[in-house]
Amino acid sequence: MFDCVNIPVALLKDARLSLSDVQVYAALVLLSGESRKCSSTRDEIQKASGVQRVSRHTQNLFVCGHIRIEKAGDGNRNTYAVLTGDEMNKPKQITLEEFKNEFLEYSSGVHSRKTIRTHKTAFREFIRVEGNRPLQSIGIREIEHFLSKKKMEASEWTARKYYGSLASAFEKAVHWELIKENPFRKVKKPKPPEVLPLFFSEDEFNTLLSSVQSRDFRELCITALLSGLRLGELLALHWIDLDFTLKVIQVKNSETFTTKSRKNRIVPMSDELFRLLRERKENIRNESAFVFHNKKGKPLKEQTISQRFKKYVIDAGINDKLHFHSLRHSFATHLVKKGVPLFAIQKLLGHSTSKTTEIYSHLLPQQLHREVNILAGVFNLKDSNTN
Fold first, then answer.
1. Which of 3-12, 60-69, 73-82, 340-349 has the lowest mean pLDDT?
2. Is there a contact between 130 and 146 (Cβ–Cβ < 8 Å)?
3. Under a CB-based contact definition with an 8 Å cutoff, are residues 300 and 294 in contact?
4. Which one of 3, 23, 74, 96 has the fewest CB atoms closer than 10 angstroms to its CB?
5. 290, 297 in Cβ contact below 8 A?
6. pLDDT tens digit sequence for 111-126
7. Burial category of 188 from C-beta neighbours within 10 Å (exposed 0-12, middle 13-18, buried 19 and up)
8. What is the average pLDDT value for the chain, to the nearest integer?
């Protein structure tokens, strides 16, 4: 059943009392109606009523033992509903905007900045297209309409990116018991046509370097090509992350940086990269903790580097579709061409699964032809035709 507890205005306006105190008051009203005895001190009452703190975006939802107390939907801010029995199993009604705010607060503590930006954009676009409707009202029809709209407005790739972001958010909504099931799991994920990764040929990279006047920027590009590190990983590198004795780079999480996979990894330095970074360390002109930094010793910004890199590409007169991430593709592509196994490349790139690394598998046929020809030498087959 469903009852209401009227909360006095004076109680709500008392600055000394928290929302948990309001919960205690409502709980005491209910408990006293059931002739239960409660302790009189605040701490004892909270303990007896099972008060729990909740996030600031769900302050209108209280938990009191087996009782759920939430604001009544009649617009009266002084009225709270006490739900028991079957009513407890009904998900709390919140809007997309409310859920977005709560999810982004959670995301800010566990995801990388890039992932957080994607979540923000995905929610913004979803609400723009579908409206700020109740979270529980989102179904297959709304999701398919949104994906269709994004395919027309942007691309299949954009629709796929937003699908992944929103699907993970709605999975969290299920975990928080805001909805019973994730509607995105009933909709097929957009599958854009396979696009081969762009990479620099030897001539293209040398042409690019010839257009770069800054030694620091040249060394940043060469390090990216020879290590396969992502731009964010490069800009987060500290000198203490480089072990010149073991000739390895430690790509790791810190208070200000999180790797895409959220895992640390070790990347070996080639002899050429070792010489470049050691000379850079010996000739350092600024006592900065960062390997790559601005004139003030502060970390560089990804967007600034990406834009500057694109300008150099255009000035060099090479394929204008090449971008900074193409250096990472170049690292992997040329390793595959030289016969390095995909499994090893997966570890070097820090891919969580082999599926991501498989984008380079189109380069394997020429390598595999060389491998299967080994069989001729193993079996020493002769012409079996007889007269």
1. 60-69
2. yes
3. yes
4. 74
5. yes
6. 878 889 999 999 999 9
7. exposed
8. 79
Tell whether the model's pLDDT for residue 256 goes beyond 60: yes
Contact present, 270 and 226 (Cβ < 8 Å)? yes
Provide mean pLDDT across the span 90-104: 85
Fold of domain 96-186: DNA polymerase; domain 1 (1.10.150)
Domain ranges of the chain: 2-89, 96-186, 202-370
Could you report the per-residue pLDDT of 152-195, keeping only the tens digit for each?
999 999 999 999 999 999 999 999 989 999 999 999 999 887 77
**Distance between CA atoms of 53 and 106, rounded to whole angstroms?**
15
At residue 141, the pLDDT reads 95
Classify residue 383 as left (phi > 0), alpha (psi -120 to 50) or beta: beta
Instruction: Judge contact between 60 and 70, C-beta under 8 A.
Output: yes
What is the fold, at CATH topology level, of the domain defined by 202-370? hpI Integrase; Chain A (1.10.443)
**Tokens found for residue 137:** 């009202």
* In contact, 232 and 253? CB cutoff 8 Å: no
336 burial type by CB count under 10 A (0-12 exposed, 13-18 middle, 19+ buried): buried
From the list 293, 276, 278, 284, the residue with the least C-alpha distance to 238 is 293
Residue 260, token pair as written in the block:
């895409």
Cα separation, 336 vs 354, in Å, equals 14
Q: Do residues 117 and 263 make contact, with C-beta atoms less than 8 angstroms apart?
A: no
Distance in angstroms (rounded) separating the CA atoms of residues 209 and 215? 10
What are the pLDDT digits (tens) for 23-42?
A: 555 555 554 454 333 333 44
